[in-house]
Design goal:
The protein has about 550 residues and is of the alpha/beta class. The protein has 22 helices and 14 strands. The chain folds into three domains: about 1-85, Gyrase A, domain 2; about 110-360, 3-Layer(aba) Sandwich (Rossmann fold); about 385-550, Isoleucyl-tRNA Synthetase, Domain 1, CATH 1.10.730.10.
């Protein structure tokens, strides 16, 4: 109903003004929709925007399509406001009670989204999981928006860090210890190997030899690299599962060397006028894009660098998908911009990149293991423990297994929501006191609103749905529900997942206000039926929004 109504208002404004850009947006507190098109027409008509807005509003008041839907048009200063009537509210309410509400029509545009892609040389840390959560939330939103989507993890299995790990497994004690996750084992060996290199720089040549052998396709070396990387990825899988993060495919960097794609992309780059040759070293001069330093593609020893293999990967994505999206940390802005510039020179699809600033913890809040990073596993364990204590305090009558299940869902909600609620370009500090606060802007707060709606419906039993709302609180809640499909579309258009987090919290807020002022179970007759219908729509919309955020829509807390 939201998009149908938007299309009708857009058509009416376009016909009335003769403009295609009618600058229609959310009307805020004063209207459901509002247009600032009067400002654009002011220069052309040489009239004040206030006068133009009044003339347009008067003209639209006679529009049959708007009148048939009960849409009221009025001018407020230079703004043209549209107030949607009871027909819109009733139709929205009916849609919102159906399973899958907010799902947009199927699209033909094929999307590939790459996220996380951390180097497999140790556990995921707190910084990595912002990448994972932003990426996974976007993926869920794209699927909700009807796009065929593949989510990929690009496995760096040929870099120097992996070569150091392989050297460590070849030369140092590395037996798996009881209770040790695979990625923690990799980190232990990697740290130990680096210490040996510091003591004996000659080991560096052995590491270089490993890198040359793996690029040359030496079977034994390739097997070693693949084995240790897989070991680390097995550890990553546990961490990501605990955060409800999923990938469809793990794409291996080395495959683009094996299948010849890296060689092909290097050959294309060699022919570019921006290519610079210094013996076997190959680089690109990207000065026309504002870069002072050369973009190295191939080392002087003839081996390809990560950038070359990344270009081969993106060339493959360009050929197989219509929209290419990467989620990268802010420290990759230079690398990302150089990649985009080179893809333009190669005349291939340029990836869209979502850059995110890093997440940190309050100083002194958690041990950092003698100056090392805080792992994502440590964070998840600590938040889960705190969530269990909170659930036990609130629901002591529940058995331990039930409390632990609820705590796991609450912990994931706390972490995912607290990280995704901030726009990616802003840095954030994860504070578990806020993240687990059932009464504030948190994931558990939204879960609690959903659980309250479930409880009301369970107590009510069967009822006849009624879509005719009357009170201000009822209508305000229904109109907020109506915006959900539009929020999904905006998230995937602008690649801003925090918009969904904000919407979900606002919906929970409005529902709590409604519940406070409008009795539901104590009301009678048609009033009770319409309010229960509204609660059902809230429960369904909160469930759909929570699931799109990767948060469990639990029924009791």
């Amino acid at each position: 109903m939201f998009f149908d109504t938007l299309a009708i208002v857009t058509k009416a404004l376009t016909e009335c003004t003769g403009l295609t850009d009618i600058q229609l947006a959310d009307g805020g507190e004063h209207a459901d929709l509002a247009s600032t098109v009067a400002f654009s027409l002011a220069k052309v008509k040489k009239q004040a925007p206030v006068k133009i807005a009044q003339d347009i509003a008067t003209a639209l008041q006679g529009n049959k399509d708007l009148a048939d839907l009960g849409i009221t048009v009025e001018a407020k200063g230079p703004y043209i406001n549209f107030i949607l009537g009871s027909m819109y509210v009733s139709a929205t309410l009916k849609e919102a009670t159906k399973k899958g509400y907010g799902m947009l029509p199927r699209k033909e545009i094929r999307v590939v989204l790459e996220h996380t892609s951390a180097n497999p040389n140790g556990p995921l840390h707190v910084g990595h999981i912002r990448n994972s959560i932003i990426g996974d939330t976007l993926a869920r939103a794209f699927r909700k928006a009807g796009f065929p989507l593949e989510v990929q993890y690009y496995v760096n299995d040929m870099g120097r860090q992996i070569a150091i790990v392989v050297w460590g497994f070849d030369n140092l004690e590395h037996e798996h210890r009881k209770g040790e996750k695979e990625d923690a084992q990799i980190a232990r060996v990697y740290i130990a190997a680096n210490r040996e290199i510091e003591k004996d720089p000659g080991i560096t040549q052995q590491v270089d030899n490993l890198m040359q052998l793996v690029e040359a396709g030496d079977a034994d070396t390739v097997k070693k690299f693949r084995r240790e990387v897989t070991r680390c990825l097995d550890g990553f899988a546990v961490t990501m599962a605990n955060l409800n993060v999923k990938h469809d495919r793990f794409v291996w960097e080395s495959d683009f060397v094996r299948n010849g794609d890296t060689k092909k992309v290097i050959e294309k780059i060699e022919k570019l006028p921006q290519a610079r040759h210094e013996a076997s070293l190959l680089s690109l001069d990207l000065a026309e894009f504002g870069f002072a330093n050369k973009y190295v593609i191939r080392r002087s020893d003839g081996t390809s660098v990560y950038a070359a293999r990344d270009l081969a990967f993106h060339s493959w994505k360009s050929a197989n998908f219509d929209r290419v999206i990467d989620v990268l940390g802010a420290d990759h802005k230079l690398i990302g911009a150089q990649l985009q510039s080179t893809m333009k020179l190669l005349r291939e699809k340029t990836p869209e990149i979502v850059y995110f600033e890093f997440v940190s913890l309050p100083e002194g809040s958690m041990s950092t293991r003698a100056g090392k990073f805080v792992s994502a596993d440590d964070l998840i364990d600590e938040v889960t423990k705190r969530a269990f204590d909170e659930v036990t305090l609130r629901r002591p009558e529940l058995d331990e297994a039930t409390r632990r299940n609820i705590a796991g869902s609450v912990a994931r909600a706390g972490i995912r929501y607290d990280i995704v609620k901030i726009s990616p370009e802003k840095s954030t500090v994860f504070d578990w006191n806020e993240a687990l606060d059932f009464e504030r802007q948190s994931g558990p707060y939204i879960q609690y609103a959903h659980a309250r709606a479930c409880s009301i419906l369970e107590k009510a039993g069967t009822f006849s749905e009624c879509y005719d709302l009357e009170t201000v609180q009822e209508i305000a809640l229904a109109k907020k529900i109506a915006k959900f499909p539009g929020v999904i579309e905006k998230v995937v258009t602008e690649l801003r997942p925090h918009l969904l987090a904000t919407y979900s919290h606002e919906l929970a807020d409005i529902f709590n206000t409604f519940y406070h002022y409008e009795p539901v179970l104590k009301s009678e007759g048609k009033v009770k039926e319409r309010r229960l219908t509204l609660v059902k729509a809230v429960q369904n919309t909160l469930q759909e929004s929570l699931e799109t955020l990767g948060i469990d829509a639990i029924h009791t807390m």
